[in-house]
């Protein structure tokens, strides 16, 4: 069984999809009151997983997602439609998950190659950062639901597959 931090990241990914559910195709591209559009959020979170867990291990990028990175210029309109970005997200997850699924508690204490964040944070803290980042943006998407009069998704869905245990 994968480590709890890995299972929890996978749970957060499912929650992101649940947060997007019910928004119509025009709503996902709206940037309301300075909030990022839900479409941009998908690209941004996909870019983060690719940058933190795929390319540092020498794997090729699934797509050039640098325009969705932190510090990139504000995007008034996403460069890709949401379906394309969700496909990139699936492809990154498929490329990253086999490695994530093998991580042990000891592996989580290791650092990936590279400078900057990879020197400061070990794999476990990168997983934690990524999971919290997903939930931060789920909150933004919930605000978009509220501002547009859509039903707001309930707080945290089923914990299926993410319940805590002491297994490594």
Low-confidence stretches: none
How many helical stretches?
5
CATH class: Mainly Alpha
Number of strands: 0
Helix and strand string, N-terminal first?
HHHHH
Give a quick rundown of the structure.
With 168 residues, the protein is mainly alpha-helical. The chain is 49% helix and 0% strand.
How would you describe this protein?
With about 170 residues, this protein is mainly α. The protein has a single domain, classed as Four Helix Bundle (Hemerythrin (Met), subunit A) (Up-down Bundle). The protein has helices spanning about 5-20, 40-55, 80-100, 115-120, 125-150. The protein starts with a helix and ends in a 20-residue tail after the last helix. The relative contact order is 0.22. The model has no long low-confidence stretch (mean pLDDT about 90).
Which features does this protein show?
168 residues; mainly alpha; 49% helix; 5 helices; Four Helix Bundle (Hemerythrin (Met), subunit A)
Give the topology, please.
Layout: H1 4-20, H2 38-54, H3 82-100, H4 117-120, H5 123-148
Helix pairs in contact: 1-5, 2-3, 2-5
């Amino acid at each position: 069984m994968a480590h709890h931090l890995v299972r929890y990241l996978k749970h957060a990914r499912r929650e992101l999809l649940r947060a997007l559910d019910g928004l119509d195709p025009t709503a996902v591209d709206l940037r309301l009151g300075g909030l990022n559009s839900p479409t941009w959020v998908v690209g941004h979170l996909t870019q983060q997983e690719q940058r933190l867990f795929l390319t540092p291990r020498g794997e090729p990028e699934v797509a050039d997602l640098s325009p969705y990175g932190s510090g990139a210029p504000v995007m008034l309109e996403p460069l890709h439609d949401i379906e394309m970005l969700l496909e990139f997200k699936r492809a990154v997850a498929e490329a990253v998950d086999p490695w994530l699924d093998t991580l042990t508690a000891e592996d989580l204490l290791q650092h990936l190659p590279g400078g900057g964040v990879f020197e400061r944070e070990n794999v476990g803290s990168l997983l934690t950062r990524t999971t919290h980042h997903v939930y931060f943006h789920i909150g933004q998407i919930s605000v978009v639901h509220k501002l547009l009069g859509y039903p707001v998704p309930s707080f945290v869905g089923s914990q299926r597959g993410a319940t805590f245990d002491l297994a490594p």
